[in-house]
């Protein structure tokens, strides 16, 4: 896989009429005189790209970058392979778009928590909600990232760092301020406190197969919402100011 070049711009979205979401007309086909409104064309193109990205995420997660096939992605999205090149240029461009979409979703939701929540419980609940939902929805991408880290580095790692580094530094700064204000225990380094919280959220997802071997989950009591409640309770009790 080629290393990600942060200076290389992502190919812009193009919306050029009906061909954005429909197969090109056959050579002998006649064009009608009725054209779709631009807003409808843009929505159609956006939906087509979402279908491509959904199918691509599944294919990359299942086979990795090297093993993924654009034709299989096109079949999964229900489009002609040429549309993948139209929107994303090539396989690397598509892979980058898949990763950026996931990272953008997590980053946007996380910044919203920082901007809207004010008390410790609200902040913890907000971040647990975002991180658990993201991890559950993109667990295979997280597994790919873990594999890339073990083998050196990769595009996914670079993009996730780009999207989350400033956010996590802001969280560390916020924890430090809450410690100084007496709202959190101050006998644990702020950065280590954040790392521990991330570990509690991410480990059960990223290393789910290992955890399942060591301590199989009780299927009768398994749910994402239950996991969120447990993590929030453990975190709040662990980081709170001792009595």
Identify the notable features of this structure and list them briefly.
243 residues, Arc Repressor Mutant, subunit A, 10 helices
Written account of the structure:
The protein has 10 helices and no strands. With 243 residues, it is mostly helical. The chain folds into 2 domains: 17-24 and 36-89, Orthogonal Bundle (Arc Repressor Mutant, subunit A), CATH 1.10.10.60; 99-239, Tetracycline Repressor, domain 2 (Orthogonal Bundle), CATH 1.10.357. It is globular, with a radius of gyration of 22 Å. The N and C termini lie far apart (53 Å).
Task: Map the helices and strands.
Blueprint: H1 38-67, H2 70-77, H3 81-88, H4 91-116, H5 120-137, H6 139-151, H7 155-180, H8 190-206, H9 208-214, H10 224-239
CATH architecture of the largest domain: Orthogonal Bundle
Provide the helix percentage: 55-70%
Whole-number radius of gyration?
22 Å
Highest-level CATH class of the largest domain: Mainly Alpha
Low-confidence stretches: 1-34
N to C succession of SSEs: HHHHHHHHHH
CATH topology of the largest domain: Tetracycline Repressor, domain 2
Q: How many β strands by DSSP?
A: 0
Strand content: under 5%
- What oligomeric state do the depicted chains represent? single chain
Going by CATH, what is the homologous superfamily of the largest domain?
Answer: Tetracycline Repressor, domain 2
Structural class: mainly alpha
What general form does the structure show? globular
Mean of residue pLDDT?
81
The end-to-end span amounts to 53 Å
């Amino acid at each position: 896989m080629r290393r990600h070049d942060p200076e290389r711009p992502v190919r812009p979205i193009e919306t050029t009429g009906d061909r954005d979401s429909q197969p090109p007309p056959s050579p002998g086909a006649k064009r009608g005189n009725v054209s779709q409104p631009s807003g409808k064309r843009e929505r159609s193109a956006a939906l087509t790209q979402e279908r491509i990205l959904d199918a691509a995420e599944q294919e990359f997660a299942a086979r990795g970058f090297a093993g993924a096939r654009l034709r299989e992605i096109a079949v999964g999205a229900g489009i002609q392979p040429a549309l993948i090149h139209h929107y994303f240029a090539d396989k690397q461009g598509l892979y980058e778009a898949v990763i950026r979409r996931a990272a953008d979703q997590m980053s946007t939701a996380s910044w919203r928590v920082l901007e809207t929540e004010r008390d410790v419980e609200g902040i913890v609940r907000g971040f647990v909600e975002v991180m658990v939902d993201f991890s559950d929805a993109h667990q295979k991408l997280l597994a790919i990232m873990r594999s890339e880290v073990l083998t050196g580095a990769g595009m996914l790692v670079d993009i996730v760092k780009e999207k989350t580094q400033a956010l996590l530094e802001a969280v560390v700064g916020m924890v430090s301020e809450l410690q100084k204000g007496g709202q959190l225990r101050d006998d644990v380094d702020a950065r280590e406190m954040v790392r521990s919280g991330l570990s509690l959220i991410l480990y059960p997802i990223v290393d789910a197969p290992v955890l399942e071997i060591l301590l199989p989950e009780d299927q009768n009591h398994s749910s994402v919402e239950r996991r969120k409640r447990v993590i929030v309770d453990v975190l709040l009790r662990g980081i709170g100011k001792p009595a």
